[in-house]
Amino acid sequence: MTEIQEKPDTSDRTTETRLAVAVHVEAELLRLGLQAMLPKLTVVESAAQFTHPAALEGALAEARFDVLILSSSHSAPAPVGRLRHAHPGLRTLVLLDPADAESDSALARLPADGYLLREELTAAALDRALRQLAADEMPMPLRLGRQLLSHAGESAHLLPARTVRLTAREQEVLAHLVAGLSNKQIARQLRISEHGVKRLVSSVLLKLGAANRTAAVVTAIKLGLID
């Protein structure tokens, strides 16, 4: 494990969520880039790098991290799905290699909470993605989102019929997920608590068999629940 220098806490915690970040990537240049960028981001409270899956899983069991940054090439030794199941409060951000970004099968095995393209990785993009994760939003490059939605629409007619029954409230939440709203924004629109929104979002994901918000939207399109 390589410790990244912790940035002194000069922010007001009451106005900004600050995150403990774990990093597990394979490429040395990518590791060095993240090591340089993360301490400079005000949204980051602390960060640590892990080069071995066993060390990562041990640290996750002993310490509380808010976000785990992975590269798509590391999905096999440290399966994203298993880590998310073992640590339900952990947000995962996957840095996609160009080939994986073009592959539906690669994305299917990477059920993350957010995605960034490696070739578009900058301090500003990383800061924005981390803030979105802190706000219960899903960071995703526009072209990647369009690709997923386009493929979902093309394959919709190939799916067997399946009945998913959403309540009227869940249908409203689904519509807001399609619009890309955060839990806080949905709560404001529906005039209910954020806790209530989280419960409804979880119910929608469960009924759709989706691992995250984007997967829920894609599945809803395939099933004809939304246009």
TrEMBL record:
Keyword DNA-binding attached: yes
Keyword Transcription regulation: yes
UniProt entry keywords in alphabetical sequence: DNA-binding, Transcription, Transcription regulation
InterPro entries the UniProt entry points to: Sig_transdc_resp-reg_C-effctor, Tscrpt_reg_LuxR_C
Boundaries of every HTH luxR-type domain copy: 159-224
Superkingdom of origin: Bacteria
Residues in the signal sequence: none
Protein name as annotated: Response regulator transcription factor
